[in-house]
Predict the 3D structure of the following.
Amino acid sequence: MRKKIIAGNWKMNVKPSEAAALVKAVAEATAQYGNVETVCCTPAIDLPAAIAAAAGTHVGIGAENCHWKESGAYTGEISPAMLVDAGAKYVIIGHSERRQYFGETDETVNQRARAAIAAGLVAIVCVGETLEEREGGKLVEVIERQMNVGLKDVTAADCAKLVVAYEPVWAIGTGKTATPDQAQEVHALIRATLAKLVGAEAAESVRIQYGGSMKPGNAAELLAKKDIDGGLIGGAALKAADFAAIVAAAN
Ligand code: PGA
């Protein structure tokens, strides 16, 4: 049985002065759902406040990106070792917004993911197709490429620290959700692709989250699908009550 994992992706929302209150509200509202792994991924500058607020609760804190080097002359970047030192436990890698606006490629996703896992973080590696790719019949090709290149040289042993998030780009922040059947189809493809990379047993153990307009009203039917093991939540993670309702649906 894979433990369900619901992670908030705060994106460039929530100021450092607001972070502790949101984490505390999430911890309180989800306290009764201890069998769901509950995570808030915050802007890097919010991490100290978020980590302090989560101390002693079941909520884990993560970052939204990291570099692959441990240290060095990389102005503006943050290393996995720094995140670990700050007390972060998770990091999102290769979100479509980073691919779209900041030049992230499958190759840099691979470097970041392997470095994060090696440092002891749980890497939440994002894949997903654009509407153009889906309508152009390229869904399978795109997902397989993102998986094969993005997770190259990730081992079966690494899978304990790996979560994959399927986020169809056309569903992010648009209010359009993939239907449970559409999502399940891609989650099964992701697991099958993973099995070729790390073996069937390790692939069975990896949690695959759905992301893209997941909200209280649609979470339960998505999470009921065989290969949907959680959610990566943007907009609905900014209100503790909405986020908690999704955690409740996963419970
Ligand atoms: P959304 O974002 O829930 O606002 O669609 C999800 C994400 O981008 O991780």
Q: What stands out?
A: The CA atoms of residues 72 and 79 lie 9 Å apart.
